[in-house]
């Protein structure tokens, strides 16, 4: 049984997996972008998010946790904390990485990805005020009333189609009337 052994094995034993993840996280922070196998990228994503969250806190305890996670690389931790202090991830509430699929590796057909840090600012979605009002109206109306409204809505388009067809017939009749008048005038002459 694998109790208390969370995460992927990544084809190696626990100590090698731990060292590989630490190395990939370091490479990502140094280069802002790495090319790796999809399962490894998905496995290091939580570690990267934790370190950036610690950097957002910015206190001494968080700095020491980041140093321990990155294997005593104090210079790299200093750079990360300075970037975050300057407001790199200030408006982002998580999701600090992006994984883009590249395709499959030639030799073993492993799915390859590019993993990068999201450095651009977050675009806030524009909220419309009509949608909440419509949702509130639907919540208030009972289900039987909604069913009746739907039935009326289904009947209304049929009536509208009939009304639209009538003006078309009238227009055709009006066009035919001047033609008939012209024909009667010719006969009269």
Briefly characterize the structure.
The chain is mainly α. It has helices at residues 14-31, 38-57, 60-69, 74-85, 130-140, 143-188; strands at 33-37, 97-104, 111-117.
Question: Can you describe what's shown?
Answer:
The protein has a three-stranded antiparallel beta sheet. It has about 190 residues and is mainly α. A hairpin with a 6-residue loop joins strand 2 (about 95-105) and strand 3. Helix content is about 60%, strand content about 10%. It is extended, with a radius of gyration of 34 Å.
For the sheet with most strands, the description reads: 3 strands, antiparallel
Structural class: mainly alpha
Report strand order across the widest sheet.
1-3-2
Rg calculated over all Cα atoms: 34 Å
Any descriptors?
single chain, 189 residues, mainly alpha, 62% helix
Task: Give the topology, please.
Blueprint: H1 14-31, E1 33-37, H2 38-57, H3 60-69, H4 74-85, E2 97-104, E3 111-117, H5 130-140, H6 143-188
Antiparallel strand pairs: 1-3, 2-3
Helix pairs in contact: 1-2, 2-3
